[in-house]
Amino acid sequence: MPADATEPVVILPEIWQRPEMLTALRNRDIGHLFRLIRRHTGSSQTRIGIAVSLSQGKVSEIMKGTAQVTSFDVIERIANGLHMPDPARLALGLAPRAPSRRDPSPETGPSQQPPHQPAPPRTDLPTEYLTGLTGASSRPIISGLRHVLTGHIQAEAIMGPPLLIGAVKTQIPVIGQVCRVTRGADRAEALNFASELLEFYGWLHQDLGNFAHAMTWTTRALDYAMELGDQRVISYTLMRKSVIAIESGDYGHGLSLANAALANPGALTPRLRAVVLRTRAAANAHLGEAAESARDSEAAIVEATAGTTQSENDRAPYCTPAYVAMETGATRLLLGEAASAIPIFEASRSQWSQSSQVRDHALLLTRTATAYAMAGERDQACTATEEAVRRMQALRSSRVAGQLKTLRRHLTRWSADSHVADLLTRLDILTEP
Predict the structure, then answer these.
(1) Residues whose CB falls within 8 Å of the CB of residue 45, separated by 6 or more in sequence, listed in order
(2) Do 155 and 213 belong together in one domain?
(3) Which of 21, 111, 120, 284 is most deeply buried (CB count within 10 A of its CB)?
(4) Is the residue at 241 inside a domain?
(5) How many C-beta atoms lie closer than 10 Å to residue 402's C-beta?
(6) What does the pLDDT look like over 233-264, one tens digit per residue?
(7) Does 277 reside within a domain?
(8) Which of 331, 366, 382 is the last residue of a domain?
(9) pLDDT in tens, 3-20
C-alpha cells in the first residue's frame, strides 16, 4: 500500500460550496461526489475508501456508476468520514452534526458561571447511551417509542405541531442507532418504525410551513421504507412527498410522485389507494386539469368507502369517505367551482366525527365558509366561520392559517357589516405568526 494511503482526505471548505458539488449532494450522487473529491484533492480511491470505510474496489464501482449508494447508514458514514460541514450535510439530506462536548476547563467550566446563571439542561442524548444500544434491546425500545408516538399523533391532531416537534426530534437518534445494530426478524420492525417516525417528523415541519425541512425528513423516511421493501410503506411515503411538493407549489413534481405512489395499486389497501388518488386529484386541480381531477376524486371516494370495511391495518386510517369528500370540495375550490363545492362540504360535515382530528375538522369548516363566501352567501359564510373559529382555539397549523387568510380575503366584501368586521378581526388574531 502506498505510504500516503492512510493519510486523511482534506477537503477545503470552498470545495463543498462549488455548484457541481452541491448538485451531487442534492442528487445523492455519491459516484459524482467521489469523482469531485478526487479531482479537487488528488486523493486516491484507496484514501477515499479508508476515510469512508469502503474498499478500494467498492469506491471504484461507485465512481464508475456500476454500484449505487442508497442505504442511509452508508451515506451517513460517508458524510462523517469526509467531515462534511453542516451545509453539505443538509444538501445531502442529513441532519447537522451534533456539537462536540469537551471536558470543562477551569476557565470555561460550569463552576465559573454566576450562581444566578445555572448551566442549561442537556437536551441531547448522551453518546454513551446511544452506543450502548444493542440489537437485543431493540424490541422493547421500539415498543416503548411506538406507544409514545401514538400519543404524539393523537395530541398533534388536536393542538398542532409546535409543542410536539422537539419531543419527537429526540427520538430520531435513538431509532437510528436501533436500526444500525438490529439484525434478523427485529430489523424489519425497526425499519418500519423508523420510516413512520421520520415521516411524522416531516409532517410536523410541513404543518408549520417549513416545506424544505419537511421534504428532507420525509425523504429520509423513504430511505428506511426502501430498505424495508414494503410496497405499502413506500407508496404512503411517496404520497407524503407528493403532498409536500404540491403545498410548496411544485405541482408537476407532486403529480409525478403521486403517479409513482400508484405504480402498483394492487399491492395497496383501499384506504391507501384512496389517499393517493385524492393527492393526485389535488395536483391535477392545481394544474387546471379539471376532468382528471374529477376522475381521481370519484375513484378516491369509491376506495375510501371500501376502506371502511377493510381488515388490514395501514397508515391511512384517517382516510374516511368524509375526509375524501372534504378534499374533493377543496379541489373544486381550486378550480373556481364554489357552488358545486358547497354540497360536497356539507355532506362531509354531516358525516364528520368531532371527537378527534380537530385540525382537519377546522380545515373543513374553513373551506366550507370560503365556498359560501366565494358564492356570495354571506350569512352561511359567517355561520361556518364562527364554528371554525371556535374549533381553532389552541390549535396552531399553517395549513389552516393559510385557508383562513383565503377566507378573510373573500369576506372583506362585507367588511362594512359590523358582524363581518368582528369576524375579520378574530381571523387576524388567529393567523398571527
Answers:
(1) 34, 38, 56, 59, 60, 63
(2) yes
(3) 284
(4) yes
(5) 15
(6) 999 999 999 999 999 999 999 999 999 999 99
(7) yes
(8) 331
(9) 455 567 888 888 898 889
Under 8 Å between Cβ of 344 and 332 = yes
Give Cα separations from 58 to 4, 7, 63 (angstroms).
Answer: 20, 19, 9
131, 220: one domain:
yes
> Residue 134: how many CA atoms within 13 Å on its side-chain side?
2
The C-alpha cell of 51 is what? 476515510
Domain extent for 43: 13-91
Residue 361's closest CA among 371, 351, 370? 351
User: For residue 374, what are the contacts with CB-CB under 8 A and spacing of at least 6?
Assistant: 333, 338, 410
Task: State the CB neighbour count (10 A cutoff) for residue 140.
Answer: 9
* C-alpha torsion 234→236→239→244, nearest 10: -100
Residues 6 or more apart in contact with residue 19 via CB below 8 angstroms: none
Residue 174 near residue 201 (C-beta atoms within 8 A): no
Ramachandran sector of residue 209 (left: φ over 0; alpha: ψ -120 to 50; beta: rest):
left
Residue with cell 450502548: 132
Cell numbers linked to 409:
380575503
Which position has the grid cell 409513482?
A: 260
- Does residue 4 lie within any of the structural domains? no
Q: What is the mean pLDDT of each run of 10 residues along the chain (433 residues)?
A: 58 86 88 91 85 86 88 83 86 67 41 44 53 72 90 82 88 89 86 96 92 94 94 96 94 95 95 97 95 96 95 90 92 93 90 70 90 94 89 70 88 92 85 67
CB of 284 within 8 A of CB of 262?
Answer: no
